[in-house]
Amino acid sequence: MDTKKRILDEALTLFSEKGYANVFVGDIADRVGIKAPSLYKHYKNKRAIFDAIIDEMNQRFAEQAKSMNINGTDAQKDSEIYKNMSEEKLLALGRQFFLYYLHDDYNKRFRKMLTIEQFNSKDLADIYSKLYVDDPLAYQSMLLGMVAQAGMLHTDNVNIMTLHFYAPIYFLLTMCDRDPEREPEALKTLDEHIKQFNRLYGRTK
């Protein structure tokens, strides 16, 4: 691992252990095994490191989505895939995404840090909401809305339908963050949730 990657990795570990506000550039440099002036050759300040961690997470997500043969951010493209997906494949896709978010080391540590810091920093609370609430809801609302327009889902309120889909998944994710031993239970519940969602909204595929 090169020095820039090591800086991100060690910084993320420190942020998840101590909280973003309680970590200083010198702490990160010490953990990496370099002097602070050397760290500044790679990142101009702590916020630049934080932003680079988000960029790294986005890149990891894009690679994961590609491996699953979806876009992950373009709802229009993914709606065409969803329309032609069997329930069996949809269940497998749901599990893959859930396990990715649960076990991807970057996501796991970053989510832990934001869970702590959301009560101390409005800026980090806003980032938490964007990454784990607003962006997923916006993407899924657009995707499910286009599937509904095609007549494969039936609802009078796409936003509420999206909440019905996403909120239980987010709940199960945070439950497993707190209690990893409940993962098998969560996966079983996830499967039943997706099946019931399809029944409730009349998915025809």
Describe the model:
This protein folds into two domains: 1-55, Homeodomain-like (Arc Repressor Mutant, subunit A, Orthogonal Bundle); 68-200, Tetracycline Repressor, domain 2, CATH 1.10.357. It contains ten helices and no strands. The longest helix is centred in the middle third of the chain and has 28 residues, at 122-149. With 205 residues, the chain is mainly alpha-helical.
Q: What topology emerges from the helices and strands here?
A:
Layout: H1 3-18, H2 25-32, H3 36-39, H4 46-67, H5 75-83, H6 87-103, H7 105-117, H8 122-149, H9 158-178, H10 183-200
Number of E-type strands: 0
Alpha-carbon Rg, integer: 19 Å
Average pLDDT across residues? 92
What is the end-to-end distance? 45 Å
Order of helices and strands: HHHHHHHHHH
Category from helices, strands and their pairing:
mainly alpha
Q: What is the level-2 CATH architecture name of the largest domain?
A: Orthogonal Bundle
Number of helices: 10
Helix content: over 70%
Largest sheet: none
Question: What is this structure, in a nutshell?
Answer:
By secondary structure, the protein is mostly helical. The chain has helices spanning 3-18, 25-32, 36-39, 46-67, 75-83, 87-103, 105-117, 122-149, 158-178, 183-200.
